[in-house]
Design a protein that fits this description.
The protein has 15 helices and 40 strands. It is α+β, with helices and mostly antiparallel strands and 767 residues long. Among the domains are: 187 residues, Immunoglobulin-like; 87 residues, Zincin-like (2-Layer Sandwich); 86 residues, Immunoglobulin-like; 117 residues, Immunoglobulin-like (Sandwich), CATH 2.60.40; 56 residues, Dockerin domain (Type 1 dockerin domain). Helix 5 packs across helix 6 and helix 10 packs across helix 11. The longest helix has 19 residues.
């Protein structure tokens, strides 16, 4: 939903230390939650279904137990599943009254169900209430909620029908849940129930966790026409100059998306052609707004349907329709299959259409998760500008996201306070910052995986509801790694990073490197952010880039190059929501290993050649900072020396190295001359030369380099004597393939005839 009238709500929650909830406290809080009831129009929505992680986050955000209780489940709505609503209403715009009948088809999900709750404001009189055709008693638990005594006990799998007849004068709440207004002097009646105000005009089980199909009939004066969800089935002429418009919607829908609008609309239709056929696209416009420009603006939704189908998958309600109708509210509202819009802006139309996938097809399970609706829909505006015919692509996306940058970053995307519509629908945090979260997820995952992940999210929650943590689970499945580092800071936390970065070109041992220092300078209360950072530079006239992993306040990186770098940029395409990225002078950091001889994983012949460890910067080191150890032959003695001009430590074995796999250990006691910081030595794989330069950007951490000396002298077991034991070792391993096989004397990767011959030709040597 886009509403220009939305007030910007800042969350001032204090994020303190996380606390562990014991079983006793969980029991106590859940008991309090289930006993709470609403006493005002601040309707309490359903948070049952075990959303303990959500409640825990609310607790940690500093909300009091009383507020937590107000966020609790009003009813145990997981006891039942509404399968279908058959809703018939009549509105009288003259006296602003509404009467209606709602027939529910309900399935029980648990045993021993003897009550059902729904919302209907107390200004309506319930004139009849039946269960399976029998009169039923009911109790008003608040001005909003009604508890029905079912008159019998139902068990899991049982189905029953319930009929509620009612009439009265509606009271509008929220953004305008039902409004009797005029346009150009003509009456109009429109609804907008989001987030939880369907109860102000029809009796619904108001929860985002229970979707149902819908038959919907609206009776109005014959001077009006009606826009509503689903396909129009017909228009009946009734006595008293009335018309009854009948609609049918065969896709599951949540109550807040059920809507109608009635006035003297001008109507026209177009067609969206897709791979499997065609779908009607209907438009309802005020006569005074009906002109070629406005028609053309709305009809942009047809190419938008094509773009979103390509990137989001098939339009979710493809067997019915899409439509836009003009309504008397600011902005727009994504009513399922039939969007209400107060304007004709291109981005507004894209936003509301994007909601048909993100918000309608997959709905936020709780209002704390509203960014799953609004962040994705706001990002859909940018996707359209990036992907529409004639777009410049990435530059258009960059421009679109720049214009959607939140005005401040102090609040969280996840809405901890859902006590009012203003708190929920924060344009700064739920919409704009939420869209940046989607944008950054695309950056982290990469384009292909991002779109595949959206498809999987759609597949798992098609016509269902999801929480933020459930989206996170899908992303982790597709990404293949934990994403807590992203969600905890960007979605559940506050703030955004600010960066200072510096660079310096250097040459070591004839090779070029770009040195990079990155410092996060945002408020300490926001914490430190983890993100991949893209650095771009020009080398030899070619534009190149490198991603580095930034997960600490201050980090240092060494990037190997083929020449000196120029025109260096930091996050050039602005994929990261940052408050600053300031270029400063390079600050020296810890030393890193940039090269070794032998290289990690290298296979070498029997040799007494020195082992060379090259650092990117001059270091202070001594013999005790290093060791050279064979897996079978143990520690090897060496003589240490240091070449200051080449930043190189030299370990010269005191005797030729026998065949073995060797580990060179460079201890973190090695320190840089310029910064006095300890070695940054961690390596992802001590046998992979691509693990160099070493380190994770932080001082501290040993380096390990492994290389192999071949048994090319036939001494397979490295005992100094080529004998039967070596022949037996070759025979037992004969035919094996792989790396680091001791019996692979020639280093071919396979133990074969040549290895057998090497042992035979050297048989008896050293014995």
């Amino acid at each position: 939903m886009v509403l220009f009238e939305v007030f910007i709500m800042k969350i001032g929650s204090h994020f303190g230390q996380r606390q562990f909830w014991t079983g006793v406290s969980l029991w106590f809080l859940s008991s309090v939650f289930l006993s709470a009831s609403a006493s005002s129009d601040d309707h309490v929505h359903d948070l049952t279904c075990g959303h303990l992680s959500t409640m825990k986050r609310l607790y940690e955000a500093g909300l009091s137990p009383a507020v937590l209780a107000a966020k609790s489940a009003l009813q145990t709505n997981d006891e039942t599943d509404v399968l279908h609503y058959n809703l018939s209403i009549e509105v009288n715009p003259t006296n602003q009254t509404l009467s209606g009948v709602c027939i529910y088809t309900i399935r029980c999900l648990q045993n021993n169900v003897n009550a059902f709750r729904f919302g209907l404001r107390e200004n309506f009189t319930i004139t009849q209430l039946t269960v399976n055709g029998q009169n039923a008693t009911f109790t008003r638990e608040s001005i909003v909620n009604v508890r029905v005594n079912l008159g019998q006990t139902f068990n899991a799998g049982d189905e029953f029908t319930m009929t509620v007849a009612y009439n009265g004068v509606p009271v509008s709440r929220g953004f305008g849940s039902i409004e009797f207004r005029t346009h150009n002097g003509f009456p109009i009646v429109s609804t907008l129930s989001e987030p939880f105000y369907a109860y102000t005009w029809w009796p619904a089980k108001e929860t985002n966790l229970d979707k149902a199909t819908l038959d919907f009939a609206i009776t109005v004066p014959n001077t009006m026409s009606v826009a509503a969800n689903g396909l129009q089935q017909g228009v009946d002429t009734l006595t008293g100059n009335r018309l009854r418009y009948r609609f049918k919607h065969n896709y599951p829908i949540v109550p807040y998306l059920v809507a109608f609008s009635a006035t003297n609309y001008n109507r026209w239709s177009r067609v969206f052609n897709h791979a499997d056929g065609s779908m009607p696209v209907d438009f309802y416009i005020y006569p005074e707004s009906d002109n070629a420009n406005n028609r053309a603006a709305w009809e942009l939704c047809i190419p938008m349907l094509g773009v979103f189908t390509q990137w989001y998958g098939t339009y979710p309600f493809i067997n019915e329709k899409y439509g836009i109708y003009q309504f008397p509210f600011g902005g727009g509202m994504e009513h399922q299959t039939m969007t209400g819009q107060g304007g004709f802006g291109e981005s507004l139309t894209a936003h509301e259409l994007g909601h048909q996938w993100w918000g309608n097809m997959v709905t936020c399970a709780t209002w704390g998760d509203i960014w799953l609706n609004e962040g994705f829909a706001t990002y859909s505006e940018a996707v359209w500008l990036e992907k529409k015919p004639g777009s410049t692509g990435l530059p258009a996306l960059k421009s679109a996201m720049a214009s959607r940058r939140p005005s401040n970053v102090d609040g969280s995307v996840y809405r901890y306070d859902t006590s009012s519509v203003n708190a929920i629908f924060s344009s700064t945090f739920a919409y704009n910052k939420g869209s940046w979260v989607v944008h950054m997820l695309r950056y982290v995952l990469g384009d292909d995986l991002f779109w595949d992940t959206l498809a999987e999210y759609r597949r798992q929650y098609l016509y269902d509801s999801a929480t933020t943590d459930q989206l996170k689970d899908v992303i982790e499945q597709m990404y293949g790694a934990d994403m807590e580092w992203f969600f905890e800071r960007w979605v559940y936390g506050r703030g955004a990073p600010a960066y200072q970065w510096g660079i310096q070109n250097t040459t070591v041992n004839g090779k070029n490197y770009l040195l990079l220092s990155v410092n996060q300078t945002q408020s300490a209360s926001f914490g430190d952010y983890t993100m991949p950072l893209e650095i771009r530079y020009t080398v030899g006239g070619n534009r190149q880039s490198k991603r580095v992993w930034n997960n600490a306040r201050t980090q240092h990186y060494v990037i190997p190059l083929s020449g000196s770098a120029s025109n260096v940029t930091f996050d050039e395409d602005e994929w990261i929501l940052r408050t600053a990225a300031t270029s400063v002078g390079y600050s020296a950091g810890p030393p890193k290993v940039v090269e070794t001889v032998p290289a990690p994983g290298e296979v070498a012949p029997v040799s007494a050649q020195p082992t060379r460890i090259v650092f990117h910067t001059p270091v202070n080191a001594a013999s005790g900072d290093f060791s050279l150890t064979g897996e079978r032959t143990g520690a090897r003695a060496f003589t240490y020396s240091y070449e200051s001009g080449a930043n190189s430590a030299i370990l010269t074995p005191n005797a030729p190295l026998p065949p073995d796999i060797y580990t060179v250990l460079v201890r973190s006691t090695v320190r840089a001359v310029n910064s006095n910081q300890a070695l940054d030595g961690e390596m992802s794989d001590p046998q992979d030369p691509n693990s160099l330069p070493s380190g994770n950007g932080l001082a501290g951490g040993d380096a390990q380099i492994k290389f192999r000396v071949l048994a090319s002298n036939g001494d397979i077991n490295a005992d100094g004597c080529v004998n039967d034991d070596d022949l037996l070792a070759v025979i037992l391993a004969f035919g094996e393939t792989g790396s680091n096989l001791p019996a692979d004397a020639d280093g071919s990767g396979t133990v074969d005839d040549l290895d057998f011959l090497i042992v035979l030709f050297n048989f008896g040597a050293g014995c």
